[in-house]
Design a protein that fits this description.
302 residues, 2 domains, globular, single chain, Rossmann fold, alpha/beta, 9 helices, Hypothetical Protein Yjia, Chain: A,domain 2
């Protein structure tokens, strides 16, 4: 897209707006990082675009405080989902009375951030940086994983800044060792060029369900423990019998399971109680059978 076509398109109002891409593998902590920026007031006047692999965008649900494609977050900050594609999300921003001061995009955990950054440049935005969140606890295992290792390594291509997460789960010497190990791997591959787009292949599948009846906390934890290694991540906002006032955040990455002690927010309406569950698995996994591992309850495909 040349300068003339950008200026004449509806996206012309976004031309030159600075943009940052935040990438990282599934469960690396991208949403946690961005939530911290929002709480600290570091994103005044920014537009936040959330792109999640699941057809139910749970990460966007945690970030936003209302419903709709574009959601006000306060302080002049706005959140927009990428469910209809990057171009559609940018058009939503271009329609607003005031262009954003900055566009921040949270890439899917299965995306290569550099490629998303290239699309931003084509749309006329000024790319500032590409930041990659790295799960320090799991990076070695992910790097060598036979299924997703190639993708994890590709995610480092074209990155300007690394942000390490899960450091608190390691001893200081072990965290330092893993950082040094990663830098050695990156130095060794410094001459490697980004692979062409035609090498892309489907590495994961995403299956989503709506939960129409409550579950007990113990049932959810027992279910999470039964998930096999083909499950890369499971997450959602669940309806628990012990917490009837609102949805409870659930997350499973590797062997670690997190189930919040209390609801993160109230239900939007008393009669709209329902949970949301997303399971991301290897593309080679058989048809999803995970709902059958739960006690008899009403789970329907989303």
């Amino acid at each position: 897209m040349n300068d003339v076509s950008v200026n004449q398109s509806p996206l012309g109002r976004l031309r030159g707006v600075p943009a940052t891409v935040v990438g990282g593998y599934l469960g690396s902590g991208k949403t946690t990082l961005i939530n911290g920026w929002l709480r600290d007031g570091a994103c005044q006047g920014w537009a936040l675009l959330v792109n999640d692999l699941g057809s139910i965008n749970v990460d966007a649900e945690r970030l936003r405080q209302g419903d709709g494609r574009v959601v006000e977050l306060g302080g002049g900050c706005v959140c927009c989902t990428l469910r209809d594609g990057l171009g559609a999300a940018l058009l939503e921003l271009a329609k607003r009375d005031q262009p954003p001061a900055h566009v921040l995009i949270e890439a899917s955990g299965m995306a290569v951030p550099e490629r998303l950054a290239g699309q931003l440049s084509l749309h006329g935005l000024a790319l500032v940086r590409v930041l990659l969140v790295v799960d320090l606890e799991r990076i070695e295992a992910l790097w060598h994983d036979r299924w997703v290792g190639e993708l994890v390594q590709q995610q480092f291509e074209g990155v300007d800044l690394l942000q390490f997460s899960k450091r608190d789960l390691l001893t200081p010497p072990e965290a330092e060792r893993r950082e040094q190990w990663l830098h050695q791997q990156l130095d060794a591959s410094g001459q490697r060029t980004s692979p062409p787009l035609h090498r892309e292949r489907q590495l994961a599948r995403s299956d989503s369900w709506l939960q129409l009846e409550p579950l007990e906390r113990s049932q959810v934890l027992a279910w999470a423990a039964q998930l096999g290694p083909e499950v890369l991540r499971a997450k959602g906002e669940l309806w628990l019998a012990e917490a009837p006032d609102g949805p409870v955040s659930f997350d499973r990455v590797g062997d670690r399971v997190s189930l919040a002690a209390a609801p993160s927010r109230p239900w939007s309406a008393p009669l709209q109680r329902r949970g949301q569950l997303v399971v991301i698995s290897r593309a080679s996994a058989q048809a999803p059978h995970w709902p059958s591992l739960l006690p008899s309850t009403r789970l329907i495909p989303a």
